[in-house]
Amino acid sequence: MPSNPVPLTDQERAIWEWQMWVPDFGEAGQEQLKGASVLISRCGGVGGVVAYQLAAAGIGKLIIAHRGNIRPSDLNRQLLMTHESIGTPRVDSIRRRLKELNPRLEVVAYDQNVSESNAAELVEQADVIVDCAPLFEERFALNDQAVRFGKPMVECAMYELEARITTILPGETACLRCLYPRLPESWKRQFPVFGAVSSTVASIGAMETIKLIAGLGQPLANRLLLFDLRDVTFQTIAIDRDPNCPCCGNVGATDK
Hints:
Layout: H1 10-15, H2 17-20, H3 26-34, E1 37-41, H4 47-57, E2 61-65, H5 90-101, E3 106-110, H6 119-124, E4 128-131, H7 136-149, E5 153-159, E6 162-168, H8 176-179, H9 195-214, E7 223-228, E8 233-238
Parallel strand pairs: 1-2, 1-4, 2-3, 4-5
Antiparallel strand pairs: 5-6, 6-7, 7-8
């Protein structure tokens, strides 16, 4: 992805010293994080932990899309929400909690969910997209605009004790519509969830994002990671790009 490094202050070097000890990351990688922007949709059980981990890691800017007010049922997994804030806008709690952790972080919060009408505006602002939306209508809207603008997207999903994650590189890898040519009929807005499961996939998603920005390691490109914490099994399967995909079939690596 394009490089927009921003020099660190002495205080920032002290804060992120330990992660800068990671081989092949160092101060150059930290400067990449400081100069990067990430869009997260939505910022609940999965997305909230992605946002929190990226804020802790020193990302420069987070764009958050998450509509609605905090409900009691959010609190088993949405770690950026608080009991005292029940009934207030989620984005207010998200912004406050992220800034408490990292006051240097720029947070642009939208009290709306991703849709076909706003996806282009949101995606255009970010270097990397992290898809944590529960509904496929939102996921497809993000996917289509990520492909259009050539923005990498980390795709996170979970159900009950299971989760899956992949990284989409437009023009190089399978996109979401390659994996799901049709809208899954059985997918519902509400489903069984433990916060520990959503946090697990979120931490992997945050690390995928950091890797993309800093050029660290190998992302889950054309690979789908599946895990089931009921019996603690993990597997990675190869996925193929569909040359006839209506979204990315005509997009080549040179088009980005």
